[in-house]
User: Fold this.
Amino acid sequence: MNIDEGLSRRRFLRYAMVSGVAVPVYASTVIGNDAQASIQLPADPDNLTDLEKLHIPKVTIPPVVEDGSQAPIVVEMDHPMDDDHYIKSIQILNFDDPIVIKGKFYFTPVNGEVYVGTQIRLDGGEGKVWVIAECNQHGRWAASRSVKVAAGGC
Amino acid sequence: MAEKIKPPRMRLPRKVKQDEVFKVKVRFDHPSFTGLGRADVDETKFNRAVPSRFIRNMLVYYGDDLVSRFRMSSGIADDPLFTFKLKAVKQAPIKVVFVDNEGERWESSKDLKIKT
Assistant:
């Protein structure tokens, strides 16, 4: 499984080590596809399976951001928020920025729906914002959006 | 002297139905500095220029229960507006608590009213 073709293995591992995702990703690439230990990406983004539709986060971010100090982002999911099956957390990252981890939002079933909106800082130029959602039963799932930032905000 | 930071402002729907999922909006006028800078424009790498200042945690309490937590870095914007959802399981106050990286704490609370 290849996380991002534009990101070198060495660079990804360096940043992933900081964000605490290195071990699960390494496990998925080297050992296999254990749902609890790996970050899962859709096999075919145009034809998502039912499980993928439920677990891949929907990320809304403008493709072009004028002011990188105030980039709006909304993450939502159709996943149920039952006591025994819910999304535990959503993490927002950008490996191209000097500040890689933007934040991590922890949910409980009392949230009812997975929805979080905020504004993040992005460095100038082209980059990719990653969102990792963690389900209590089906592990971690990732989605990304490419973004161009006119004036960097870091 | 540094400008005093005001408590966060929270917006809830006036009334919600039992078990309805509703949006909570919280605006907090808090500065966010990464503290990073470049010595000159042509430089590719950032250096630590000034001390960083940012919101570290947002805690959401529904009644006495901690129902959500947002752990942040200086990668969050200045004066952020946070939007998230909650399910109206009981009539109880909703409280948000912010703690920044210097340990300062602010909070705001509002009562949630459920239609009977």
Summary: The helical segments of chain A are 9-19, 22-31, 50-55.
